Amino acid sequence: MPQVLHPIEQQILKSLLAKENMTVEELVEKTKLSIDQVRRGIEWLKFKELVHVNESQKNFVILGKRGHEAFEKGLPERNLVNFLKSKFGASCEMNEVKDEFKNDFSPAIANAKKNNWIEIHENRIHLKGYHDTTPEEKVIKQIAKSTSPTSVEEINEKEAIDLLKKRPDFLSFSSSKQMTILLTEKGAESAKSVSENVSDPYSRAIDVEAPAPVVFAAKSHPLQDVIDEVREIFVSLGFSEIIGNNVQSCFWNFDALFTPQDHPAREMQDTFYIENAKAMKFAKPDQIRKVSEAHKKGWNYQWQSEEARKMVLRTHTTAITIRTLADHDYDEARLFSIGKVFRNEKVSYKHLAEFHQVEGVVVGKKVTLRDLMGLQTEFYHKMGIKKIKFWPTFFPYTEPSLQSMIYNDKLAKWVELFGMGIFRPEVTKPLGIKNPVLAWGGGIERIAMLRFGLEDVRELYENKFGWLRSVPKCQ
Amino acid sequence: MPVVTLYFDRIQKILGKKISKEKITSTLPFIGLDIEEEASDHINVEYSPNRPDYSTDYGIITGLQGLLGIKLGMQQLHIKVGKDMIKADSSVSKIRPYVTAIEAKNGTLDDESIRQIITMQEDLHNGIGRRRKKASIGIHDLDKIKFPLYYKSIGTDHRFIPLDSDVEMTVTEILEKTETGIKYGNILHGQKVPVIMDSTGKTISLPPITNAKFTEIKSTTKNILVEVTATDKNSAEDILAVIANTLQTAGFQIYSVRISGANNSTLKLKPRDLLLGSEIVNQTLGLELSNSVIIKSLRKSRLDAKMKGRKIVCTIPRYRTDIFGSMDLVEEVALGYGIQNLTPTIPESVSVGERHNVTKKLEAIRLLMNGLGYTEVMNFELISKEILYEKTGRDYSKMISVLDSKSQEHAILRDILLSGLMDVLSRNIHESYPQRIFEIGTVYEKDLPLKEEIHLSCVSAHNGAGFTEIKSVLQSLLKTGFNLECKTIASKDSIFADGRIASVVVNGKQAGIVGEINPEVIENFKLRIPIAGFELNLTGLIFD
Q: Which value does ipTM take for this structure?
């Protein structure tokens, strides 16, 4: 396929075919394109290896203040001989001209001598022969007549330039980079075919290889995508979603889960309590009575309903799960919830004060710890995680309790992920939950960090457009 | 979770059998310890707060011995009857009523043993002791003390030389000037504080703050007194059971101390029995273990177990305070059997899963907003007063605060999303415009006691952003998404520019606000571009 060229490129190529080694300015004049169009066209052609760009330095000269004076009034040496001739004829005393020429006297004498226009004998100046136009005068005239800075290369009288350079304020020099553009071999061929084919502007093919402007598709937040993926896996495993409030009474967040009222996890330094908020009817009277009895029996203290009434930002989604289980009499169920949970943590690269958690429960007469391990394994397989192992651990409201470790290929190590266990009888019995309840869950941000290769969990909530736009929707 | 440092050479010595480092490292997780850090000569492990007996390497070694099959069954605690006495005075009844103690004799302590014992003491203080409030421990050099001891209350002008000091201080000075005094002084209030004094009138302890300097234990100490004072007798005994067991493992002979007066009595630290049926074990674990395998597994978990009729009777040492009932024993069986020996199974189910109705509708809104060119952002629900109210010039009389937040940026529950979106724009000023973003999330409102609603908010920021554009987005979303028509009625709000803001009314009910952002607000967020946006309450509009 012949390369498709933009009309700008075609114009430039045609011009270059007619004349090699053109400057940008010359191309502007020849093509009648704007300087920006020409520059852009040269960049494209260079990229396609159709032209070669030579960069060279070019020196320019303009007249300085004294140079302008000399152009208008003549050089001091010229003025000296004219003055001598008109006033004295052939010779005069040095002092007679000295006052007339002041500061110009010394250069006038020196240069007139150099030009062989005068001779000096015993302090008298003697005029000699012809006074032709000097190279210096020619150069000054040439520069003065030019409308733009004169290229030093264009001046033939190189010696005169050096001489004028020595005179202060006569000349001023500058330099600039100069580009000259010439066709490459490939470019010459293209240029020929361009000039032979008169293109039809309406059926013109476009350069399909040229880069297009960048646009960004509007999309959901990457963390939301992970949440949706986790949700979909739960649904595919036969789990139904339950939702509930983020603000909960201590009763459902702690008491119903057999967490004693003086437990450190309940302290303000770990849990967010809402200022001036107390739950009115937080549970059924029967639920409250039985839970309080379980606390008295298990932990041997006086349970306070005022403590249970306090409102907290839930520290786990289990607050939602346990209430749903307590309010429904399930023989069998598979439920899950995904939502925000809150901990009074100092926010750092490792910890957030609020994050998302997912939790699934299975209720059934014959469900076992091995089933729980199986469901967990199935969940991970669907997330693309193959290497899994289980370790014992402790959670206050499950017994037995396990934690799962997954092998992360990117980090090349085992990483702790979801925790799991069977709800303690001390939790289920007072709430009238008859069958065993398998539960498992964990933080979503942790999965997202592994997925997106983040080392700082805060990045998920910085909402930097650069990041939001660059994370692939599917990976 | 608390951390314990284990030195391999020490472990290998105390284990009583040469076990490789690798074997030790790979076994630790299976007694429930998390490996925090591994080094060539030591390993740091985290233990769960329900197992305070794992707060020293002695306790961890007891556990390892079981799982490695070196020693099985319960570690017997041998307590010899001692003659020394502590007499409690009724004056402590209302301050800190309980005291109990043991003596540990004829042992030796090296620096590492002392370090282990001190960290155990701190972990017990923080855990069972509830940061010393419920119970606290004093460990003393027994040979420095003249019995009987007296536990009584005393005035705050009482003086003695406390630990970590060389000069005599009054109780008031100790509470105000020493590190532990400042940290735990608030547990004591009133004019009287509890002290333990010996028969010569020397103070040995000011619970729960500090001990006296002169009874401090050193590597030359041979005989130890451990006293525990508490507001709850059971917690005091839980703590002492762990310490007695640890010190016995460390090579000390344990003696009881006679306690009397003001409802106090000598402690016993007797093991207890629980009955366990094999059915609950097998049903819970999904295994078919014989009684003898169950018994062996329990013994590997350092409990005693034997058959009694058709049931297994399990004997639990006093220091295992984490065992409440059968389910806890099931876990002990699982650990003794080895979690790695349990293979996962998939339970049969015919249940069909489903997303919640609210989730489905929110997903639809997300898709529609993307289709309208808006990118989703996610902000925190706890934000700062500055962003939520001050920069937007909003009234904060109904502000909802959380107590004692560790950071000011996360101290207030948001009541709108729009402020957060403005903050996102202000953090992206260097990115190309137009910028169009939205957020869906929970907001909070003061009610009886609190109301939670789900809002949708979006902003469009570019040179041509204006009311008409954003109203188009709003009505398109409601119409295409939910076949709802909306009206916009002139309104007022500090976030929006006067004359460029309207209430959104759907089916005669107010559902949100829409308009051009007030230039002052734009400037407060250090932005320099026109912005228009809306905030819509989805709760009550498209779901309940």
A: 0.90
